[in-house]
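Researcher: Please translate sequence to structure tokens.
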Amino acid sequence: MNKTAPSRNSQRTRQFSKATARCLLLLTAVLGWLPPNDAVAEPTTASVKDNPAEHLMTAARALKQIRPELFGTAEGILVTLVVPDGQAAAAGLVPGDVLIGYSATPIDSVQQLTEQIVIAADDSRITLTYLHGEQRHRSTINGGAIGVGLQDLAETPFTRMIALLQLGQQALATDNYSEAVSLFGNGLTLAETQQHQQALLIHRQTGDPAAEAGDLIGIGIAYKNLNRPDEALPPLEQALTICRELGDLSGEGAALNSIGNLYRGLGRYREALPPLERALLIHRELGDRH
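Model: Translation complete:
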């Protein structure tokens, strides 16, 4: 059995590398992003060592996904360097820490923090709140320059996708295949969501409501698969309205079925039953017996 294990692991690695490549291709098509040459390489730690700033950003964004409660209402901004003998150095901050509060204000961007620093008097005393790993810390500093290099932590679909891919590759490198499957799957779903959204803009501009409804259903299903039900319902309801206005029974049935399944997945069975029953009637009327 030991002789077959390496070949099985190699096969799994190739499969996951293909999944990574598919995510990157979707990124290129949807967001116009050109991946680096080594983006679909076998899992490795070399890129982490070669680019520590990228590693810090990846780790911070991963923390935000795993422990969002640590951030409260703040987006957070990443500390990329600490100036020797500055206030941040004296307070114990190090690269990789995440600033989440300046005085009583949650921090969402570097620009916002800069504005807060300008407003505060140099002789005022400021409480700086930051994360070091999974621990929240507070330090009292003077107004004025903090003595750090900073980068926005707020994510875009692109950065969320890359974070999921990198986490998936890390899981794969440690033979954690179930975790890798989940991470790569979420990455693919996120890319497909963006693809539907781009198509939706085009179909709205060209005046194709039937295609628009199909895009909205795709977006709703994708958000459902990402466990974001609050974002899944509105596009599904929009699609239902469009299909009813068009008299598109097939589209109406698809939208109703998706809405019913969304409620069922949330355990809201009484709300799930009416759209599912209506969808079944439509499918029977159309002879679409699945």
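Researcher: Any highlights?
Model: DSSP finds eleven helices and six strands in the chain.
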